[in-house]
Design a protein that fits this description.
This protein is mainly beta and 208 residues long. It has one helix at 103-115, and strands spanning 30-40, 43-52, 56-60, 70-74, 80-89, 92-97, 124-134, 137-146, 150-154, 164-168, 174-183, 186-191. The protein has a six-stranded antiparallel beta barrel with strand order 1-2-3-6-5-4. Strand 2 and strand 3 (56-60) form a beta hairpin.
């Protein structure tokens, strides 16, 4: 029986997973526009899911991708699939799942999760220094997670909820933000200027 959550097994060679059209039976493709957290050897990033079938999916990312490398793809905190890259070209790659899934059931579960209260975008775990610029000056923080529109941090002081700040990341990336919550040296930012998806395809750029 097909399962929405997968474990790792040795994959067999797959057909081209880049087709955009639907096919019948277990090879039917569903166009999917969502962000997934992709773990690979020594790295993790947010990549875009372009389409998905029972046997695999197509992902979009501009980072170098090697045919044959294993990927762990978290479509949400509860829905994780595993597979291997079978082709890579022009900022896209095809992944064959280690085990088939019931794509209709997976997409239904993801839609239900997204409608639930407390849902939030996939976030990348990071441990990197950054700066917050306010009218009073610049202070150092330690980032613990990042998404396109949010960031979690630890800080040795108190930042007032609702305060407007500018977040300065590695490489000079700057984004306007608002302190969403702050308690006991930890806090969360809402980025009023979201990060570009490409900025989050690999956390290596934020390691310092």
């Amino acid at each position: 029986m097909k399962k929405p959550l997968l474990s790792t097994t040795s994959p067999e060679p797959a057909a081209d997973l880049g087709a955009e059209t639907d096919r019948r039976g277990s090879d039917r493709y569903r166009t999917v526009w969502r962000i997934a957290k992709v773990k690979r050897d020594g790295d993790v990033g947010l990549w875009r899911v372009r389409n998905m079938s029972d046997r695999g999916m197509m992902l979009a990312a501009d980072v170098p991708i090697t045919v044959g490398e294993p990927l762990e793809i978290a479509l949400s905190d509860a829905v994780i699939v595993r597979g291997r890259v079978v082709w890579s070209e022009g900022g896209r790659c095809g992944v064959e799942f280690d085990e088939e899934v019931d794509v209709a059931a997976v997409l239904k579960q993801l839609a239900s999760e997204q409608r639930a209260s407390g849902y939030r975008q996939p976030r990348l775990p990071v441990h990197t220094r950054a700066e917050l610029v306010t009218d009073e000056g610049t202070s150092a923080i330690e980032l613990v997670d990042l998404s396109q529109s949010g960031a979690g941090y630890v800080h040795d002081g108190h930042l007032e909820v609702g305060k407007e700040v500018e977040l300065v990341l590695a490489g000079g990336i700057r984004r306007k933000a608002i302190v969403r919550w702050s308690k006991a040296g930890r806090g969360g930012l809402w980025l009023t200027q979201p990060l570009d998806r490409a900025d989050l395809e690999s956390i290596r750029r934020f390691q310092n």
